[in-house]
């Protein structure tokens, strides 16, 4: 049986329950007052999820059952990957995950599908979950902006990029918790229970020692900034501050470009608000400003870094010419006249619309 009771309603009674067919079962517990019960002699259950629009139930017969918030059945279909591992949902989107075929080493790969229930559109169909060997999925959820996120048993948080375009999705690491400064040198022994990805931060519960699950009473949430594991050079090097500064800027550029890409996909796929479009423009400028700071580091390092410096400038998306003009001035300040001439030539080409993407 599936039982649902909303926290807010304007009618006298809004809870509902539905009896699943004989031999089919689901159990578990979810916040927002979604509960399922099972008889002891029935197979162990699969997964449930709740969004602002739908209740999703995956059952022991490998069915995916989708209900509205008031109990109206919308869809019933059998998932291709079996058995089901988990499911999660956000607004009109539903992500289901199950076991795929057995590989040559005897292990199975996990497959996921993302569907827009309202539009009856499949965004990703039975795509492979990117996991290293002997790594398990600890949690799957959507971020506050609606992007699928995954936290695995190695402590890596990943986000799914370009997932609205069929065949274009890829899992990108946002944070490797093993590389957190608080764990450096083995000072602490702790793991993290993921709660949310929101406001460009990873929100979690810190588990001390060998704890695997949050304890009672509920502990306070902790939050960590994203830090994409670019290269080992991203570690601070006190003997060479320039290398350390450049590595930090490179990581910031990769991370900011990723967040910009996620926002671009959101704006293109939805009826974006004025604030979202303004945020998109602001992030584009911020990425170019990071490149300008990186150019400053490369120019300071010497003439032999000129090729990389010019490459950094070529990554700028500035069409107004202001930031390219600033880049030319940076090169001129360090006496890199050849580089300055090439930057000015690039700026003229862009203003004339002759550059190739």
Can you summarize this structure?
The protein is of the alpha+beta class and 357 residues long.
Describe this structure in words.
- The protein has 357 residues and is of the alpha+beta class.
- The chain has five helices and 19 strands.
- A four-stranded antiparallel β-sheet has the order 2-1-4-3, with no helix packed on it. Strands 5-6-7-8 form a four-stranded antiparallel β-sheet, with no helix packed on it. Strands 9-10-11-12 form a four-stranded antiparallel β-sheet, with no helix packed on it.
- Strand 11 and strand 12 form a beta hairpin.
- The longest helix has 29 residues.
- The protein is elongated and about 80 Å long.
- About 5% of the residues have low confidence.
Based on the model shown, name its key terms:
357 residues; alpha+beta; four-stranded antiparallel sheet; 5 helices; 19 strands
Sheet with the most strands: spatial strand order: 2-1-4-3
How far is the first residue's CA from the last residue's CA?
56 Å
Mean pLDDT: 87
Order of helices and strands: EEEEEEEEEEEEEEEEEEEHHHHH
* Biggest sheet record: 4 strands, antiparallel
Which consecutive residue ranges, at least 5 long each, have pLDDT under 50?
27-45
The value of Rg in angstroms is 25 Å
Class of secondary structure makeup: alpha+beta
Number of helices: 5
How many beta-strand elements? 19
**Proportion of β residues?**
25-35%
Helix content: 25-40%
């Amino acid at each position: 049986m599936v039982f649902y009771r909303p926290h807010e309603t304007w009618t006298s009674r809004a809870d509902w329950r539905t009896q699943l067919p004989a031999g089919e079962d689901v159990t578990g517990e979810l916040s927002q007052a979604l509960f399922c019960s099972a008889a002891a002699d029935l197979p162990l259950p699969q997964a449930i999820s709740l969004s602002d629009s739908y209740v999703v139930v995956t059952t022991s017969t490998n069915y995916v059952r989708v209900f509205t918030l008031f109990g109206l059945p919308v869809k019933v279909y059998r998932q291709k990957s079996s058995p089901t591992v988990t499911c999660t949902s956000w607004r009109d989107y539903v992500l289901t995950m199950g076991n795929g075929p057995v590989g040559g080493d005897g292990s199975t790969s996990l497959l996921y599908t993302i569907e827009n229930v309202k539009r009856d559109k499949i965004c990703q169909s039975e795509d492979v979950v990117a996991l290293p060997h002997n790594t398990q999925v600890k949690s799957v959820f959507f971020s506050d902006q609606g992007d699928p996120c995954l936290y695995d048993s190695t402590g890596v948080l990943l986000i799914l990029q370009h997932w609205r375009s069929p065949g274009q999705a890829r899992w990108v690491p946002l944070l490797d918790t093993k590389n957190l400064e608080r764990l450096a040198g083995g000072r602490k022994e702790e793991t993290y229970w993921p709660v949310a990805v929101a406001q460009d931060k990873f929100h979690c519960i810190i588990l001390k020692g060998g704890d695997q699950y949050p304890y009672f009473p509920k502990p306070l949430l902790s939050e960590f900034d994203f830090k994409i594991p670019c290269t080992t050079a991203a570690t601070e090097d006190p003997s060479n501050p320039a290398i350390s500064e450049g590595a930090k800027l490179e990581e910031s550029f990769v991370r900011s470009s990723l967040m910009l890409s996620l926002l671009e996909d959101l704006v293109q796929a939805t009826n974006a608000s004025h604030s979202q479009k303004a945020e998109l423009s602001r992030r584009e400028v911020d990425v170019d400003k990071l490149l300008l700071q990186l150019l400053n580091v490369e120019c300071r390092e010497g003439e032999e870094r000129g090729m990389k410096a010019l490459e950094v400038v070529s990554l700028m998306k500035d069409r107004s010419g202001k930031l390219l003009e600033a880049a030319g001035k940076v090169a001129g300040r360090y006496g890199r006249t050849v580089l300055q001439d090439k930057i000015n030539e690039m700026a003229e080409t862009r203003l004339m619309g002759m550059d190739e993407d």
